[in-house]
Amino acid sequence: MTQFRNWSLFCIFILLSLAHSQVVIAHSELIATLPTQGAILTTPPNKIRLQFNEPLNAGSTFVLFNEAFQPIKLNPLIDESKPAILYANLPADLHLPAGFYTVQWLVISQDGHQISGSYRFQIIGDRDMEILAEGVSINLPGWFAWLMIILALATPAIVWNWAKNSK
Ligand SMILES: [Cu+2]
Description:
- The protein is an alpha+beta fold.
- The protein has a single domain (about 1-165), classed as Sandwich (Immunoglobulin-like).
- The chain is built from three helices and nine strands, in the order H-E-E-E-E-E-E-E-E-E-H-H.
- The strands form two sheets. Strands 2-9-8-4-5 form a five-stranded mixed sheet, with no helix packed on it. Strands 1-3-7-6 form a four-stranded antiparallel sheet, with no helix packed on it.
- Copper (II) ion (CU) binds near residues 23, 27, 111 and 113.
């Protein structure tokens, strides 16, 4: 009996080791979205689409929240021909008013673990367009534009430095 128990423990140990090695290699990563993160849309999107680096397991989903953080009823599906893609078509009669929207996703990786995250995009409606046309709402100072340019130029260097240091 003792021998059998030792053998069982050995098997469990091997299984756990295998599971652990999968943990390292098999986490899903979000690689692209539609709309893109931070997008400013003049018309509501007709589709939300998230592309991951590996096929997703059943149970993977996302929720679209409006500015008041109320969920918008959608039916996210894993693309049958490209199972690394999670998408939902937005019905034509769904009127999304201007505002910020948040996509909160939760997917099941190949190793069975849940990975989650979120990103935002913005819809600017007719009202915002009128304000834009009058030049009232967006009147950013010159230093802000320069700050954005410097940030955009510095980001690759920061990321490269970070990647180098984290090795
Ligand atoms: Cu995992």
